[in-house]
Design a protein that fits this description.
Layout: E1 6-7, E2 9-14, E3 17-22, H1 43-56, E4 60-65, E5 73-81, E6 94-99, H2 107-121, E7 125-126, E8 133-138, E9 141-148, E10 151-156, H3 159-172, E11 175-180, E12 183-184, E13 187-192, E14 195-199, H4 201-210, H5 240-253, H6 261-267, H7 276-291, E15 296-299, E16 307-314, E17 325-332, E18 335-343, H8 351-376, E19 384-387, H9 391-398, H10 410-421, E20 425-426, H11 446-456, E21 458-459
Pfam families: RVT_2 (PF07727)
InterPro entries: DNA/RNA_pol_sf, RVT_2
Organism: Prunus dulcis
Amino acid sequence: MGVYYKTQCRWIYRAIQGKTCGKRYTQTYGIDYEETFAPVAKLNTVRVLLSLAANLDWPLHQFDVKNAFLHGELTEEVYMDIPPGYNTTQTGTVCRLRKALYGLKQSPRAWFGRFTMAMKNNGFKQCNSDHTLFLKHRKGKVTALIIYVDDMIITGNDKQEISQLQDYLATEFEMKDLGGLKYFLGIEVARSQQGIFLSQRKYVLDLLTDTGMLDCKPADTPIVQNHHLGEYPDQVLTNKERYQRLVGRLIYLSHTRPDIAYAVSVVSQFMHSPSEDHMNAVLRILRYLKSAPGKGLMFSKHGHLNIDGYSDADWAGNVTDRKSTSGYFTFVGGNLVTWRSKKQNVVALSSAEAEFRGMTKGICELLWLRKLLTELGYKPTSTMNLFCDNKAAIAIAQNPVQHDRTKHVEVDRHFIKQKLEAKLFQFPFVKSEDQLADMLTKAISSKAFHNSLDQLGISDIYAPT
């Protein structure tokens, strides 16, 4: 008999139920597991689907697969100890696993592979823009399914195909019909005649309760204007684990709260060595959340599916290394779907260079949205707009000039030039006071901040009127 390696197992009890789980820490790479990666749905893709649903009156159904990982087929040869409590007369007996178990390193990948095969067998194609999105086009209509591990959303304008898909999945897996979309990955979804509203109100209240901030004094902005957060030699350090835990929870919250994106981006830069000043900045974000825990995104019907964006940069704003911060907002069908606030990787030598690099990131996001809509069957027919408030950056993009001040950003310039020549983009100039992405690059005044929230579709349906 050949040499084999075995993993161990244990029982996991929950209420009156129990299941056998593999002990992944006993597995060895290259012997009883190899590839483990399995994709999960991008929340950016989910928001695009919600914008389409709001504009086109698509239904939104939610389903869950029971014991999803047990459906995965193992490609490796995996042996396991006999589960505790199972009586056997033979000593040294082990099990050879044919199916995946919860706890094995490769179980998520095995499950996603099994689900992908089932969807393809039913005529669906895996989307190139997001591998967790599956599409089926039939008679000019589309059905879409997006999955996050074992939670899935089904939408589209082909009611017959949606019904058929539900029946098909029920024959392949043990499904749980959760009805209309109301709660997905900790995000609350409310649908009305006004549109589809996303929020994490319960998540915010739980966060405030856990940190003892439920009765704190509210703040009107998430970060103080003209802050000087940085790394200083005389800074007083704070509890690193608590800081990292709080910032991690805020990062997840920012999936529905773009209003805290810049503040969270700033405090995320000090995870390795946080000071009391950095912790006070985190507490300031919590105080702001206390002012409106129910704030979220509203997806309304606008009568079009145009793709637009706003891009901005704050030149040399970081006090530690003088790197710039850039940010963008993108819209599909008039609804905010993606955003980002990030410190640039290199030091920009001018405000035009900082803005230009920020424009490149915004363009890449708009191109991804265009590709996604095209795969969904709604290829944009109009030129995409990326609004910018820096005339010098626009001039660099639109004019074939090359000199010492711009040749170090030539790769970005040629990339943008190519897209301009294909007439995919135009760069309308917008005044600084109308630049929505300004709030992603710096701390702005309370008045400008709240004016931007209204234009972005960020509101609080729970607030008293």
